[in-house]
Amino acid sequence: MTYFRDNIEKLDGYVPGEQPADADVIKLNTNENPYPPSPRVIDVLRNINPEKLRKYPQPFGDEFRTAAAKIHGVSPENIICTNGGDELLSLCVRAFCAADRALAYPVPTYSLYPVLAKIENCPAVEIPFDEQFNLPAKLAKTHAALTIVCNPNAPSATFVPINELASLADELNGVLLIDEAYADFAEDNAIRLIKDFDNVIILRSLSKGYSLAGLRFGYGIADRNLINGLIKIKDSYNADAIALAAAKAAVEDRRYFSDNIEKIKAERNRLTENLRKLGFKVARSHTNFVQAQWRSDAQELYEKLKSAGILVRYWKSPQLADKLRITVGTARQNDRLIEQLKNFGF
Amino acid sequence: MTYFRDNIEKLDGYVPGEQPADADVIKLNTNENPYPPSPRVIDVLRNINPEKLRKYPQPFGDEFRTAAAKIHGVSPENIICTNGGDELLSLCVRAFCAADRALAYPVPTYSLYPVLAKIENCPAVEIPFDEQFNLPAKLAKTHAALTIVCNPNAPSATFVPINELASLADELNGVLLIDEAYADFAEDNAIRLIKDFDNVIILRSLSKGYSLAGLRFGYGIADRNLINGLIKIKDSYNADAIALAAAKAAVEDRRYFSDNIEKIKAERNRLTENLRKLGFKVARSHTNFVQAQWRSDAQELYEKLKSAGILVRYWKSPQLADKLRITVGTARQNDRLIEQLKNFGF
C-alpha cells in the first residue's frame, strides 16, 4: 500500500554526485568552479539589510532581470529567475508535457531529464547521438511537446553549432529548451535565437561560470509569452532575496567573470593534453569538464582515484562505462590527478 | 496556438500580495513579521565561507534536519527541507494527485491550493467551512488522494483542535497535509500526530514566526516513507547553502523566537480589542493576523486605507468581501491603523 502515485512510487530518484564532508578530497566530480565567487557577492552578503530577509522578495526578481537583460541584449520580460537551472527544467516539463505530450532529448546527456519525465508521467523519447555527438536528425521528427538539447552537452563536453539548433527550432512544432548550463565556457551560445523563434527557451545557471553552485540560481531566456506562462506555474517567491541580490552582483562583475572563464579554459586545454599523453581519448571540451575515454571499462580507475582522495564522475551505462567525466580543477588539482594516474602505472 | 498544456494556458496564476517599493507604506497585507530576524542569522551571512557558495549544498540539508529534529522531538529522517513552504505544497500535489486523484480542502483558505490543482490538472474538491470555521465532517468523505487543512487557517485566523485532525487522519485513505505556516502563533500544533499516522505531513515555514519571508525556507515533518518519496521528486539541491545555514541559526535561537512570538501575541490581542471597539467583528486569532469583518462590503475601506499608505489584504469573493485580513504590525503600526480608521469617521 502506498499513498504515492504509481509513477512516483516506482521512481528511482536522480542521484547527485557525491559531496564528501572531507575538505581534503580533490573534488572533480560535480563540475563546480574551482575558483571562489566574485568578491562583490561576498560584499552583498556582508552588507545585507535585515529588512530584505523579513519581507517577501520581489516575486519576479525584477532587479536581476534588468541586470541580466542588459548583459544579454534582451528585455527584462524575456527572463524568468529560477531556484537553480534545475527548477527551470522542472517548470518546463510541468508546463508542456503530459501523458500525451512527450519530452524528447538526445542521449547520453544530463541524467535528470528522464527522471523529470517519470515524475510528470509523460513519455520520454531518447534519440542516440552518433559517435561524434552530432545533433541527431531524428530529433526533429519526434512530435514531442518539449525537446531539450544540452549544449554544450554533458557528459560529452561537445558543442552543436547554433545554426543547427535554429533549424531544429524551425522544424519543431513544440518547444525547444536549450540547456546552456555550460555555455559560459563555450565560444558561442543560442541567445540570439529567441528573437526569431517564439518556441525557444535558453537555460542559464550561475552554478558553474559564476562559482555559485551553493546559491541555487538560474534563469530562463525566451519570448515573453513563454516566460509569462512559466511565471504562472512557478512558486510565488521561488528565488529568495539573498540569491537575487547576490546573483545580480555576480553577473554585473564582468571582469572577474571573464578572467575566471579564461583561467579555466587554459587549464582545460592543459588537462586535455596531459590526459591524451596518458592514452585517454579526449574530445575537445566546450565546458568546464572533460570526458576522458579509456581503452576498456573505467570503473576500476574511478575507484582507485577515489581511494587516492580524488573524486571524478563515473556512470555504469553501456555508452559511458569506458569514460570518466573530470571537472577542470585548479592547476594544482589537475596536476595531482595526472600524477596519481601516472602512479597507477600509465 | 499555444505551446502550453491546455490547463496551463487557461490558468490564472496565484496573485501574491502587493510589495510596494515605497518603504514608508505600512505593510499589513502579507503577514510578514514586523520584527527583524534573529541577530544570529545576520551573523551567519556576515561570516559566510565563500566555499559554501562555490560548492553544491547538502542535497538533504542534514545539518538543518538535525537541528529541527531536536526541537520537534522527531528524527532527522522525518524532515524534508523546502524552498519555502510553498514548495512543499507543490511537491505534495505532484506526488499524490493526478487526473483521477483529487485534492480536497475546506474553504475559504490559502488561495494557492486551487492554483496547484489546476497546474497538476487534478480535481479540486472544496468543502465549505461553517460560520465558526469548524472542521467540516464531509472532508473525511471526499476520497481525495491529498487533503490539505491550513491550521491555523488563513484568512480566518481560526484553529481546529488537534484531536479532530487526528480523527480526520484516521478516517482518510489518502494523505493529510496540515499546513502549519502560522502554528508558531498558536497554542498547540499537530507534530505529535506523525508518530501515530503514516499519512500525515506537517508543513512549517520560517517566513512568519522567524521573520525570514525573504529567505524562502520551509520544511515538512512526516513518517520517513512519505519524506523519502517526496525527496525523490524534489530538485537535487532545492534548498541553498545560505538558506540552510541561516535557517539553522534561526531555529536554534529559541529565546529570540519566543520573545518575538510573545510580543506579537500581545499586540494581536490589543489590535483585536481596538478593532472590536470600532465595530468590526473579529474572531479570536491564532495567527499573526486578524480577520476583521465589517457590517457591509469592505472594499472601500481597503481602498481608503491604501490611499492613506496602509496596505491590508482584501478578496472580492462572496465569503470574504465584507472582511479585511490585517497583519499584526508593531505597536506603532497598529496604532496608526486604528487612528486612520477613526479618521474615516468610525
Describe this structure in words.
Two copies of one chain form a homodimer. The first copy, chain A, has helices spanning 6-9, 39-46, 50-54, 62-72, 85-96, 112-120, 162-171, 193-196, 224-233, 241-252, 254-277, 299-307, 331-343; strands at 26-27, 79-82, 103-107, 124-128, 146-150, 175-179, 200-205, 218-222, 281-282, 289-293, 310-311, 323-327. Chain A is an alpha/beta fold. Chain A has two domains: 6-36 and 255-343, Aspartate Aminotransferase, domain 1 (Alpha-Beta Complex); 39-253, Type I PLP-dependent aspartate aminotransferase-like (Major domain) (Aspartate Aminotransferase, domain 2, 3-Layer(aba) Sandwich), CATH 3.40.640.10. Chain A has a seven-stranded mixed beta sheet, with helices on both faces. In chain A, strand 6 (175-179), helix 8 (193-196) and strand 7 (200-205) form a beta-alpha-beta unit. In chain A, helix 4 (62-72) runs parallel beside helix 10 and helix 11 (254-277) runs parallel beside helix 13 (331-343).
* CATH C-level label of the largest domain in chain A: Alpha Beta
Low-confidence stretches of chain A: none
Assembly level:
homodimer
Number of helices of chain A: 13
Roughly how many Å is the radius of gyration of chain A? 20 Å
Cα end-to-end separation of chain A: 53 Å
Task: Count all strands of chain A and give the number.
Answer: 12
**Most residues in contact, chain pair and counts:** A-B, 77 and 76 residues
**What number of domains of chain A?**
2
Structural class of chain A: alpha/beta
- The topology string of helices and strands of chain A comes to HEHHHEHEHEEHEHEEHHHEEHEEH
Task: Write out the strand line-up for the largest beta sheet of chain A, numbering strands in chain order.
Answer: 2-8-7-6-5-3-4
| Overall pLDDT of chain A | 96
Globular, elongated, flat, extended or rod-shaped: what is the shape of chain A?
Answer: globular
The CATH topology of the largest domain in chain A comes to Aspartate Aminotransferase, domain 2
> Which range does the strand content of chain A fall in?
5-15%
Tell me the name of the CATH homologous superfamily of the largest domain in chain A: Type I PLP-dependent aspartate aminotransferase-like (Major domain)
Biggest beta-sheet profile of chain A = 7 strands, mixed
The CATH architecture name of the largest domain in chain A reads: 3-Layer(aba) Sandwich
**Fraction in helix of chain A:** 25-40%
